[in-house]
Amino acid sequence: MKAKQKIYDAVVPQLIERLQQATPENPIAPWSTEWRDDGTKNTALMMGARNGVTNRPYSGINWLILGLLTDHKVQTYYTLNQLKQITGSNRPVPDEKWDDSYDVVFFKMIETKEKDAQGKAKKMPIMKTYKVWNHEQIPGLPINPATEAPDFDPKSQIDKYLANLELAGGVHLGGNRACYIPSQDAICLPNSEAFYDKYQREATAAHEGIHATGAKHRLDRKAHKDYDDVDSTYAFEELVAEIGSAMVCASLGIPLDNLQHTEYVATWIKRLKNDHDFIFKAAAHASRAAEYLAK
After folding, report:
1. Domain limits of the chain?
2. Strands (E), 79-216
3. What mean pLDDT do residues 178-188 have?
4. How many CA atoms lie within 13 A of 44 on its CB side?
5. What is the pLDDT of residue 135?
């Protein structure tokens, strides 16, 4: 558990501090404030941290770590082995930057002494960390530009994601509420002209789409069963939707700087202080939901 505690100690205090600064009048999302546009255009990786060799975006808690704890214009990161291969040097990281790496995590499955019904050893995930460095920390590193995708309209793309959910009750436009109705498997959205911000409509649609992924016939998100009070149950699902919609918007190059539901901030802070797994679970569920919505 040392690896998880290490990440917790790095992430959670900053997350709590930034959440405490969020107000209804200034609802800044803590995981979005440090993102920078790296100059690419309409790429599927435009605003999120990604691996500089594979171009794959980081997901789960790693997405949160690199969005919350870093402040770089170029959002590409490399492992030590990757840097050695790229540069041909056994010491590609400058001495003064060695301790400025970022710890990201992976889960390794190990066998336990317990047996399953077939008599095979049960496996359990063990969390480990590894170090990555940002492109800007390595002198002379060649820029590997992301491949540009064809131009697209973010609104149309989000609408496509909602259509792909095949909601039994469909998407209903109009009125002054945005919500997902589980009993009807339907999403309600105000008309586009009702939104004040250019991208607020897309962010709201993504948020409700993330909620819809949790339905039993989709991801069957049962995380709420971990909490025995209504406030924590709703707060957890809203945190999943906040992070998940930010992931979706980042993948489309949509800036999403504001929290949509600041009324849950107090419960988030309380849970973050008392439950070390709270943010890990929320980030993992958000990542799965974002991938499902955008598939």
Report:
1. 2-293
2. 102-115, 121-134, 170-173, 179-181, 186-189
3. 97
4. 11
5. 94
